[in-house]
Design brief:
The chain has 733 residues and is of the alpha+beta class. It has 3 domains: 200 residues, no CATH class; 98 residues, Roll (Pdz3 Domain), CATH 2.30.42; 272 residues, 2-enoyl-CoA Hydratase, Chain A, domain 1 (Alpha-Beta Complex), CATH 3.90.226. Helix content is 36%, strand content 17%. The strands form 6 sheets. Strands 5, 6, 7, 8, 9, 10 and 25 form a 7-stranded antiparallel sheet that branches. The chain has a 7-stranded mixed sheet with strand order 21-18-17-14-13-12-23, with helices on both faces. Strands 1, 3, 15, 16, 19 and 20 form a 6-stranded antiparallel sheet that branches. The relative contact order is 0.13.
């Protein structure tokens, strides 16, 4: 059985609509619905039956998932839905009655279309922005509008707020009215391009997440994307697509991919049609982005023909035909990579430190055990071997934002740092704990070790961090605790477990199902509590709104008996290191800024409103600018000498030439017009969005106070530790 991840924050704000029927050979939605319902009853960790209690919660979650800010449905709608489906929705699932999903959605679609029509007229009115009123930002816990009149009142305030927001934009792309009108048109376009399968996907995902936040129904395309992200490779042309005015637009070309090597497709080109080999073209205009992605992906060495509108075409009727052979593309940006960092230590001596960045716990399950199969442990071992050859005296494993991945890889990776012994315990519905062990006595790194985490470190990251902490093998540094996901998922391809659905293909999608909880070898669970840091550092991620406890319906925390294990026999000097770190943090300007920003975030979250008065808003903007300018001046005045940083990747890890010095790269910003849906055809097709005020760096370590202080802690640990001999040979685990 393959134990996989289910991390990241589940988002129930989806838009779907039934617009097409089922084609020949496609799985029957009713049969998929029955299958998912039965698998949840029989396979989920809780073994909870689809009863009336589940039915009521399921309906509540589905309605909130559609209208997450409670702005389109009215309380009258909610009462009608509750009366009709509140007690029977679970029964409908088990008999394959898909009517509730479509009926509820059709009403939602009608409410949304009617509201957008009203809003388009409302934005044309003259607003003076002189009132002392305000608009509520987050309405997820607010009451539903009582009726249409109440909804009109709420929307008028929101429209006024949106128009004011655009009027205050210093770099507008269009006038406020045009911007909002286009925004509403995009929502309508998105709704109208959805399919019947999207309705079922959204409906069944909410059903699964009614059991727990990490169970999920995946469509065929989502299953393929999940598998791509786990093995860090896919077959395609090497392009990133984004949706733009009804077209799939080329947003980026992957270096070394078939499209980049070919050279004819350019960033900014728009895809108008796609053909497989010598077959006829399929029109791609106004097609869902993931459908275009699906057509361009394919088997290795097969040919895809793409019609594009060139970015520099003076005449929009111009078309260019490009024929490209698909190939495998590695997702190198998600691989483990490292840095050799040189710092001046006590007495002026140069200290070399190793910093390994691990974005996820990846593994190629399809090639499990085969030579060349992708493996987190194998990659990290290669990095450690080179870091030792470079003479590093201490090591940091950076698991910030690491959402998890393969349970087996978490166990094997832990084995690189301990002699042997238990790593994690798991318990299924039978209540019997099972201990998973590292059985290889070889230690690949026995020097000073720090694990850097934050609230977004989840699942497999927590298994690794908890084991390192329980063994006393290294220090955990970062947010108060990690995410708190202590559950294990398996992937069940519905066409294989329910053969009556078809020929065993993945056309029916898959159910990612929570089947176990995992526990620390010391007996506690990471569920809800996460892994607490030995040394806590101020961080903008360190908020109660981030983590398992902020999700709907998480499983409870509990414990099991401790496993039998032998702790590391060296001191970590926690008391001394904590005192030294606290003194530095208290005097550090960047950490002071973080604390100030956290207080402001909490204040704004508590207020949960924004003023509709232009004068007040401009004063707030000016105050923020003054604060930002003051910080910029203070940073310039107190600029510190940056350490030397040398990049180490899996491409250069085994080469003999000297590592190249990393130069701090120019900070990039995403402009407002880039804040749109993106899909990577030959990388990953996850969607991404960045606030226009968020600065994004690739390699620069500047202005990362958590990294700087973590390195300070590591240096202190090295100076307090008894020198140990570091072996240069290592055994692959």
């Amino acid at each position: 059985m393959k134990l996989l991840r289910s991390v990241c924050l589940p988002v129930l704000a989806f838009l779907v609509v039934a617009t097409s029927g089922r084609g020949a050979g496609e799985p029957d939605p009713a049969q998929i619905e029955i299958s998912v319902g039965r698998l949840l009853e029989q396979g989920h960790y809780t073994r909870h039956k689809l009863d009336e209690k589940i039915s009521q919660q399921f309906l509540k979650n589905y309605l909130e998932g559609l209208d997450y800010n409670r702005l389109y449905f009215t309380q009258k709608d909610i009462d009608l839905f509750t009366a009709k489906y509140g007690k029977s929705l679970s029964t409908d699932v088990l008999i394959g009655n898909t009517e509730p999903a479509f009926t509820i959605y059709e009403i939602y679609k009608k409410r949304l279309e009617d509201r957008i029509a009203k809003n388009k007229e409302l934005v044309k009115e003259k607003f003076l922005f002189a009132s002392e009123g305000s608009v509520q930002i987050n309405r997820q816990k607010a009451a539903w509008p009582k009726d249409e009149a109440d909804a009109d009142r709420l929307w008028r305030a929101r429209i006024e707020g949106e128009l004011l927001q655009e009027a205050l934009n210093k770099h507008p792309l269009n006038p406020p009215v045009k911007t909002l009108t286009r925004r509403y048109d995009q929502v309508l376009r998105y709704i109208h391009e959805q399919t019947k399968e999207d309705v079922i996907k959204g409906f069944l995902t909410v059903l699964a997440q009614t059991y727990d936040p990490h169970s999920e129904y995946m469509s065929k395309s989502e299953l393929e994307t999940f598998q791509i992200n786990m093995r860090l490779a896919l077959v395609g042309i090497g392009a990133v697509l984004r949706s733009d005015e009804g077209y799939a637009k080329i947003a980026e070309l992957v270096v070394g991919g078939p499209a980049a090597k070919d050279g004819r497709i350019k960033v900014g080109d728009r895809v108008s049609a796609v053909a497989q080999g010598e077959k006829e073209y399929v029109d791609a205009v106004d097609m869902k982005l993931d459908k275009v992605v699906e057509m361009i992906r394919g088997k290795k060495d097969t040919v895809v023909r793409i019609q594009v509108i060139p970015v520099n075409a003076a005449d929009p009727s111009v078309r260019k035909v490009v024929e490209i052979k698909r190939d495998e593309i590695k997702l190198k940006e998600q691989e483990a990579h490292a840095e050799v960092i040189e710092r001046v230590g006590v007495g002026g001596n140069v200290v070399r430190l190793g910093w390994i960045i691990l974005p996820s716990f990846y593994a190629d399950f399809e090639k499990n055990g085969e030579s060349g199969a992708k493996s987190t442990t194998k990659d990290v071992l290669a990095l450690i071997t080179r870091l030792k050859a470079e003479g590093v005296q201490g090591l940091v494993m950076d698991l910030r934002r690491n959402g998890g991945g393969s349970l087996e890889e978490a166990i094997n990776l832990t084995g690189l740092f301990i002699k042997k012994g238990p790593v994690v315990q798991t318990k299924g519905a039978d209540g019997v704990p099972h201990v998973s062990k590292d059985r290889d006595p070889t230690i690949s790194w026995d020097g000073p070790l720090v694990v850097c985490t934050n609230r977004l470190s989840a699942s497999a990251s927590e298994i690794f961090a908890a084991a390192i902490q329980d063994y006393g093998r290294g220090l955990i540094v970062g947010d108060a605790s990690t995410f708190g996901k202590g559950t294990v998922q398996t992937m069940l391809e519905i066409g294989k477990v329910m053969p009556f659905l078809g020929n065993g293909s993945n056309d029916a999608g898959a159910l990612k199902l929570t089947i176990q909880k995992f526990y620390r070898i010391a007996g506690g669970s990471t569920q809800l509590k996460g892994v607490e840091s030995d040394i806590r550092l101020p961080s903008l991620f360190d908020q109660v709104e981030i983590g398992e406890g902020a999700l709907k319906g998480p499983l409870d925390y509990d414990t099991v008996e401790p496993a039998d294990y032998e702790k590391w026999d060296r001191s970590l000097f926690k008391k001394e290191l904590s005192a030294k770190s606290a003194a530095r943090v208290a005097a550090d300007m960047e950490f002071r800024y973080i604390v100030e920003d956290l207080e402001m975030i909490k204040k704004r979250q508590l207020e949960n409103k924004v003023s509709l008065n232009e004068k007040s808003r401009r004063m707030e903007i000016e105050q923020d600018k003054v604060k930002k300018d003051a910080r910029t001046a203070a940073r310039a005045k107190n600029a510190q000498v940056e350490p030397k940083v040398y990049a180490l990747t899996l491409d250069n890890v085994s080469k003999k030439e000297e590592l190249k010095l990393v130069v701090n790269e120019k900070v990039e910003k995403k402009t407002p017009d880039e804040k749109v849906e993106e899909k990577k055809v030959a990388a990953t097709d996850e969607e991404g969005e960045t606030d226009e005020d968020v600065e994004v760096t690739v390699k620069a370590s500047k202005n990362d106070p958590i990294k700087t202080e973590t390195l300070n802690i590591l240096c202190d640990l090295i100076s307090l530790s008894v020198p140990v001999k570091v072996e240069t040979a290592s055994v692959v685990k």
